[in-house]
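I am still getting used to backbone structure tokens and would like to learn alongside you. Please make up or recall a protein chain and show it to me in full. Would you write everything just below, so we can both look at the same thing?
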Amino acid sequence: MRAIEISRYGAPEVLQLCERPIPELKAGEVLIKVHAAGVNRPDVLQRLGHYPVPPGASDLPGLEVAGEIIDGDLSNSAFKKGDVVCALVQGGGYAEYCAAPLQQCLLVPAGLTALEAASLPENFFTVWSNVFDRAGLSGDDTLLVQGGSSGIGVTAIQMATALGHRVFATAGSDDKCRACEALGAERAINYRTEDFVAVVKELTAGKGVDVILDMVAGEYVGREINCLADDGRIALIALLGGAMATVDLGQVLRRRLSISGSTLRPRPVAFKAAIARRLQETVWPLIEAGRIKPVIFKTFPLALASEAHALMESSAHVGKIMLQVI
């Protein structure tokens, strides 16, 4: 099969088209003939040598795919050969065939193409796990999404809005802010020209927000504490702004604040299977009703994965960058 491998750590050009054997299936896996794959920040980190491949996972990049199930043990499941599914995988998505845990597969939502469906798993699993499970967004809670124009950001904005929450977001330009607002954010804040702490406090009558989804970290964490409501929660999912932060622990104690972090890739199949079930029950109907939509910025053929990574690193995009495989 054709695949994209990381020939060495470095710039996007190290992504090279190659020939690899079709993956051999482990227990509980199915073989997917890949139609499309998503490009994500962890793929870039892996290419740079900063995101180790979990033991037993493919060394090929790619954490989400959509395509046709062509092999695997489907007994005692709702799937059959020929079903078009999207799946969260530990690696191997940049290829014509990919092995995926059956429990991490979801049928493509009605009305979506395989390309659109391939844009869902990594971001939707991540947002559900961190915003709703870990940070417990519920009731009349409010949410601040840092990096609202990213793939994660557009997912979090739409998902929380569709479930009835007030959502605010940050982005790096006025155009990106308007894009976030078009997706449901009540107010998007240009972090280059505005102080998100002051704006959030004003929008919430001084209370602050209940949950912050943070992929920046670094010096943002101390500022985020200042714009959290009492009992507020910060969910860290990336460290784009650095791994070190200075925080006012007095506020954490007095106002019962929580800071948690997680990465999804190394978690066991059973953990991800539980998220898949919740997405199927709660979020897939919202997609099929048109209340949440895939946001795809640009699609590249598989052979041009290096150009897709260059675009990702430029941060010029709003939403997802995709690879068309067939």
Notes: The CA atoms of residues 197 and 224 lie 7 Å apart. The mean pLDDT is 97. The longest strand covers residues 29-39. The first helix runs from residue 41 to 48.
